[in-house]
Amino acid sequence: MSLNRRPSCYPQQQGSMLVISLFILVVISLLAASLSRILSSTADSVANEVYSAKAYYASDSGMEYGIYSALNNSLTCVEFPLKPLPIPFDISGESGLENCSVSIDCQTIGLPNGSKQYYLTSTGTCDGGKIVAEHKVEAEVKS
User: Fold this and answer.
1) Of 9, 26, 91, nearest to 56 (Cα)?
2) How far is CA 137 from CA 60, 63, 111, 132, in A?
3) 128 sits in which H/E element
4) What is the Cα 137 distance to its own chain's centre?
5) Residue 14: helix, strand or coil by DSSP?
6) Which whole number is the average pLDDT over 84-109?
7) What's the pLDDT at 2?
8) Contact partners, residue 63, CB within 8 Å, separation at least 6
9) β-sheet bridge partners, residue 117
10) Are 140 and 117 in contact (CB under 8 A)?
């Protein structure tokens, strides 16, 4: 008794599943690597934004202090054109401005009517390790 055997096409396809699965594995690995890079880039961008905003608010706080002190004549400034000495302004205990520092520069010009014109520059610097942000604010105050 003879069984009617048909030739099978399976022997010709041996190993094709291995090639397909390797291809899919490589594609998924490439997608995971690119997604990881995108997420890392986004995290760095957010950190830059945060430290930049902190530096702005630190310099703005220093400027407010400088204007207040200039209007109360409690600010020690040098006469223009001498190079200004930095006036320290401590913000180390302020919530939200950790790792930030402020430096205020002040110069004065005596006006003919006896009043003074103050040139103030406040520089806020925030150091986040690999990210350092700096922001400057300038103002002129007449008293």
Assistant:
1) 91
2) 7, 7, 23, 17
3) none
4) 17
5) coil
6) 85
7) 55
8) 104, 120, 122, 137, 139
9) 109, 142
10) yes
Element spanning 98, H or E:
none
Tell if the pTM clears 0.90, that is, is over it. no
**Domain residue spans of the chain:** 14-142
Q: Which residue has the tokens 């890392």?
A: 40
**CA–CA separation, 140 vs 133, rounded Å?**
24
Within the chain, strands assigned E span: 78-79, 87-89, 100-110, 116-127, 132-142
Of residues 76 and 30, more confidence is placed in: 30
Q: What is the pLDDT of residue 45?
A: 81
For 26-61, write each residue's pLDDT tens digit: 999 989 888 888 877 777 788 888 889 999 999 999
For the chain, the average pLDDT equals: 83
As a residue count, the chain comes to 143
